Amino acid sequence: MGRAPCCDKANVKRGPWSPEEDATLKSYLETHRGTGGNWIALPQKAGLKRCGKSCRLRWLNYLRPDIKHGGFTEEEDNIICALYSQMGSRWSLIASQLPGRTDNDVKNYWNTKLKRKILAGKINISIRNKSIDAPTSIANILTSPLLYGPKAETESTITISDYSLTQSSGTLPTLSDIGYGPFINCTRQNLSPDQFQFSNFPGVMDMSEFGATSMNSSHIVSPSQECIRAFQIPLRLLWITRVSHCLVMVVLRVLGC
DNA sequence: AATCGGTTCAACCGCCCTCAT
DNA sequence: GATGAGGGCGGTTGAACCGAT
Prior knowledge:
The structure is a single chain. It is built from 10 helices and 4 strands, in the order H-H-H-H-H-H-H-H-H-E-E-E-E-H. A 4-stranded antiparallel beta sheet has the order 1-2-4-3. It has 2 domains: 11-63, Arc Repressor Mutant, subunit A; 68-257, no CATH class. It has helices at 19-31, 42-46, 52-63, 74-87, 91-96, 103-119, 135-143, 145-148, 175-178, 225-254, and strands at 187-188, 197-199, 213-214, 219-221. A hairpin with a 4-residue loop joins strand 3 (213-214) and strand 4. The model is unreliable at 125-235 (pLDDT under 50). The structure holds a DNA duplex.
């Protein structure tokens, strides 16, 4: 036996919200600076014949002032694909990495458009210049407590630079710089070039095989820029492998495998 | 103009989790 | 520890919309 319903369904209005109801709810929440900690009691206080949960949903998904509707960018597509490949349908978590997007929006977008785009081969998770247009998203990913462990120490020092896959000089973008897929908890810390540090590489490789100096079980520090360059080819290969893996995972999930 | 099938997306349902008692 | 209320979330539904015929 399930739990009792949160409201008397016979006496609450259902279906689409009218502009008047929207205005009432918005006005109440703005006047009282929130729900007062209780959505269930809100409809009665606000004079709405709606279920408290319905009010909550309407506010969170539609009336909130910082909501964006539609117009998903390619960048957002990529982030959604990558996160979906990694964590599946954790829509609220995925939405939390996309400022102004709601879980419902992301879910609908995925189910109606993105899935098809992927199957049609129109989506390609790629790196390009300024691949991270939303540094805060990456910071959020890195510090997301549920999936990525404790708050990353590097949160305030994440630096975003211009990278491209064909970049021939300078340091290799780490997988976290790309910000996609299984690599997003591989952090590049804001250290000087000769202290380039990788941390928490997700289990697939022993960096020491590339000549790195092991600092401890979870950190590897290359002592020089030369060492960093030594990482470039294997890391690029790894990156390409991982991106391919990521895409395959997305497709498999889409196909329900 | 009418019908039909596909798409979109707001809203609902029901379960799980957390927290207060 | 048990219980119940409220919040949060993912899955699903169905009305509205749109383009094709």
